[in-house]
């Protein structure tokens, strides 16, 4: 399912009840129960068409055994346990009942197929049992429009948005809630995937000193910001190559591959024994990845300025 093919969720909700919610001639406020389970967080929220978030429940999952990252089987199992609790809490915290809900929304993708199915099935079951309209929302479209709900002074259309996550790196120009232009996307790995890979190559723990899961990004950032032990120096390393300079395209396979090549020239246990080297590589990769985001945003702003 492509981003362009999926930018129709609000139109679908319009049609679900003969436009009675969103049509300008008969507009009234409506309340939606929204469900999300695309990765490893089980989420339920209640929000209104006049931009009020009445509740927002996010239930985290414990580490998936010895897995680094998300194990699909464990994630699905925890979603199935957590989703009923998340829904009940969202309704309670919003001080509403299902009779106050006008429609149901769920994340339809992109995401992990089995995980997505949990919110989809829960939403469809609720909608069928209560005779409410239901709409599947594109994950990245929702991210692009989040500022319309969360900002006291929301942006006006058209506006530029940068979306970065484990599976996506996109620069979008939003013209309306349902119309977008993709200005730049990645030709290979998303930035989140590259960060996960580099954290594994550097043999980083994804947990903090208390055993809490913090993830690859936080682990890599902590390492890059740290100082080496006494007596250990940080070596100078060759700057990472710039991916697609002056072009509206992302590529994070290059910086990730550079780390792989650097480590491939060293003994297998070198990265574990030399903390200074680990810090140098973490800093070099992080600087290259963030610099690429900055460059593409500047290019996009220039593109928009010319139009």
TrEMBL record:
InterPro entries: ATPase_NBD, Gcp-like_dom, KAE1/TsaD. Its EC number is 2.3.1.234. It catalyses: L-threonylcarbamoyladenylate + adenosine(37) in tRNA = N(6)-L-threonylcarbamoyladenosine(37) in tRNA + AMP + H(+). Residues 52-303 form the Gcp-like domain. Keywords: Acyltransferase, Metal-binding, Transferase, tRNA processing. SUPFAM superfamilies: Actin-like ATPase domain. Transmembrane segments: none annotated. Gene3D superfamilies: 3.30.420.40. GO terms for biological process: mitochondrial tRNA threonylcarbamoyladenosine modification. Pfam families: TsaD. GO terms for molecular function: metal ion binding; tRNA N(6)-L-threonylcarbamoyladenine synthase activity. GO terms for cellular component: mitochondrion. It comes from the Eukaryota. This is N(6)-L-threonylcarbamoyladenine synthase. It comes from Tulasnella calospora MUT 4182. The lineage of its organism: Eukaryota, Fungi, Dikarya, Basidiomycota, Agaricomycotina.
């Amino acid at each position: 399912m492509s981003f362009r093919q999926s930018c129709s969720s609000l139109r679908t909700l319009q049609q679900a009840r003969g436009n009675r919610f969103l049509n300008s001639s008969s507009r009234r406020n409506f309340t939606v129960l929204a469900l999300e389970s695309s990765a490893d967080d089980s989420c339920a929220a209640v929000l209104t068409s006049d931009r009020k978030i009445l509740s927002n429940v996010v239930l985290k999952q414990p580490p998936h055994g010895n897995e680094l990252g998300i194990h699909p089987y464990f994630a699905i199992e925890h979603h199935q346990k957590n989703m009923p609790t998340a829904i009940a809490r969202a309704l309670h915290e919003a001080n509403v009942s299902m009779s106050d809900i006008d429609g149901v929304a769920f994340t339809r993708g992109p995401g992990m197929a089995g995980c997505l199915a949990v919110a989809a099935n829960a939403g469809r079951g609720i909608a069928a049992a209560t005779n409410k309209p239901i709409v599947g929302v594109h994950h990245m479209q929702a991210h692009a429009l989040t500022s319309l709900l969360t900002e006291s002074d929301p942006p006006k259309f058209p506006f530029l948005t940068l979306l970065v996550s484990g599976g996506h790196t996109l620069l979008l120009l939003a013209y309306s809630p349902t119309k977008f232009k993709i200005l730049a996307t990645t030709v290979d790995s998303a930035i989140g995937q590259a960060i996960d890979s580099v954290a594994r190559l550097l043999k980083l723990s994804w947990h903090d000193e208390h055993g809490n899961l913090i993830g690859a990004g936080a682990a890599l950032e902590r390492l890059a910001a740290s100082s080496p032990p006494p007596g250990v120096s940080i070596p100078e390393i060759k700057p990472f190559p710039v991916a697609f300079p002056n072009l509206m395209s992302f590529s994070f396979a290059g910086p990730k591959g550079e780390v792989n090549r650097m480590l491939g020239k060293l003994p297998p246990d070198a990265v574990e024994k030399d903390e200074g080297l680990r810090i140098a590589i973490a800093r070099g990769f992080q600087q290259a990845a963030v610099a690429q985001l900055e460059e593409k945003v500047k290019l996009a702003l220039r593109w928009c300025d010319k139009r």
